[in-house]
Amino acid sequence: MARKTDIFDRQFLSNLQRLSIAVKRPFKGALKGEKRSPKRGTSIEFADYREYVPGDDFRYIDWVLYGRLDRLYLRLFEEEEDLFLYILLDESLSMSFGQPSKFETGQRLAAALAYIALTSLNRVQVCTFSHRLTHRFGPKRGKSSIYPLFDFLAAREPMGPSDLGRSLREFNVTTRRKGVLVVISDFLFQEGYKDALAPIVGRGFDIGCLQVMDTAEVDPGMEGDLLLLDSETGEQREVTMSPAAVRRYRERVSAHNADLRDWCFRHRANYTLVTTDMDFRDVVMRYLRLQGFLT
After folding, report:
1. pLDDT tens readout for residues 113-155
2. Which residues does 186 contact at the CB level (< 8 Å), separation at least 6?
3. Do residues 57 and 166 share a domain?
4. Which of 33, 92, 96, 132 would bridge 121 by S-S if both were Cys, CB 3.0 to 4.6 A apart?
């Protein structure tokens, strides 16, 4: 991915600035931003009342309420703070498949989501992973971090086998603040994904699973004698794809994807499947909004 691909033209970037990262719950931030915090502060959005106690700032006394109840109450407001957005991008060798590759699509998704968060004064950390966390960017805040982030993503290449469990354990023990975590991957892990994601769910992160697959993986549409190559292990296997075998393959892929979707639904996580042939602008500007990733 070049630092500024053709999808990141001026008009597209302008359109992205009208979007924001969707959250299901308020998180504690570090600096003022554009997302609500559970702390009570002095922004313009009213949150609640509490009874006045000596030493409170009398400027926040609600005198109208005092006239009705003959008791002093303070008006409390939601304090707006920055959201932490974490993006984990799968850079294992299985992501190199396709044209454009799954990894290129994942790079663009990560870049778009990070751009939206950075222009909203939120904090962004992007990690790539294969058999472990391999590279980190951030946490960073502000528009000045946008092109360094694009350069970081452009420098990444698919490499090695995948281990989601180990990667998320490393992320879990090195990440102090909760926030929104988006995992971008094909989710084709031999060890599965449920045990790996469970501790993150337990800590209270908002989780989104962006599954990226090539159209040939979803529906191979080919028959006859084939030589299959596992891109991560190098293992080769000769198979004969009869019409019945193609049908079984489609059923198993569909079942796998449906299981991931259902797991996300049960754990209040966002999920969507993005195939490499989809129009990228439409994915970001419409599809991710419909699926609850963006507002």
Report:
1. 999 999 988 999 999 999 999 999 999 988 899 999 999 999 9
2. 90, 94, 95, 102, 211, 212, 213, 217
3. no
4. 33
